[in-house]
Amino acid sequence: MAWIIVASADHVAGGVAGGFVQACHGKDAPLRRIRPGETIIAYSSSAIYGRAVPLKAFTAIGTLLERPPYRVEMMEGFHPARRDVEWHVSQPAPIRPLLDRLELTRGKRNWGYAFRFGILRIAEEDAAIIAAAMNAGAAPLRSTPEEALQLPLFGI
User: Fold this and answer.
1) d(CA 21, CA 63)
2) DSSP 8-state secondary structure symbol assigned to residue 69
3) Please, are residues 32 and 71 in contact by the beta-carbon 8 Å criterion?
4) Do the beta carbons of residue 56 and residue 114 sit within 8 Å?
5) Between β-strands 81-87 and 20-21, what pairing exists: parallel, antiparallel or unpaired?
6) What are the b/e assignments for 6-16, b being 16+ CB within 10 Å?
7) Are 58 and 92 contacting, i.e. CB atoms less than 8 angstroms apart?
8) What is the pTM of this model?
């Protein structure tokens, strides 16, 4: 099983640096649907949260680990749920060249509509196509937080 989680690239970079994923404004119910060992793919429609800096690319890929959802305090009054992920070595891949190849988007004029809920399950075949486009390896990403935050954003 594979899942896409939608977040801005800067938020994805923070998750990669910290070895976690967070979705749907910190809700835990969506994260509970994902099982350990399943593939997580981050899709970023924008490069920077809250800014009109379009990206429309898959920005990270990894495997969900065993630990159940847990809460952290990011700021006073905001305690989002997270899951631990072993992120893999990969590079961002724009979605446009994949639109006609993915079951998720093939033949759909309004393909972005599928991403509106922030998390969605996808076919294993789609995950394999995305992983290949990202040059994703099975090797875990071993970087410092500073390196992870240097996510290449196609010249942005």
Assistant:
1) 10
2) P
3) no
4) no
5) antiparallel
6) bbbbbbbbbbb
7) yes
8) 0.87
pLDDT per position in the chain (156 positions), as tens?
899 999 999 999 999 999 999 998 888 899 999 999 999 999 999 999 888 889 999 999 999 999 999 999 887 888 899 999 999 999 999 999 999 999 999 999 999 999 999 999 999 999 999 999 999 876 676 554 455 445 454 443
Place of tokens 């942005």: 156
Give the CA radius of gyration of the chain.
Answer: 15
In this structure, whether the domain defined by 2-99+109-148 belongs to CATH 3.10.590.10 is answered with yes
Residue ranges covered by each domain of the chain: 2-99+109-148
3-state secondary structure of 119: strand
Nearest to 153 by CA among 12, 20, 2: 12
Count H helices, E strands: the chain?
A: 4, 8
Is the alpha carbon torsion for 147, 135, 24, 109 positive or negative? positive
φ, ψ of residue 134 in degrees (nearest 5):
-85, 0
Parallel/antiparallel/unpaired status of strands 93-94 and 119-122: unpaired
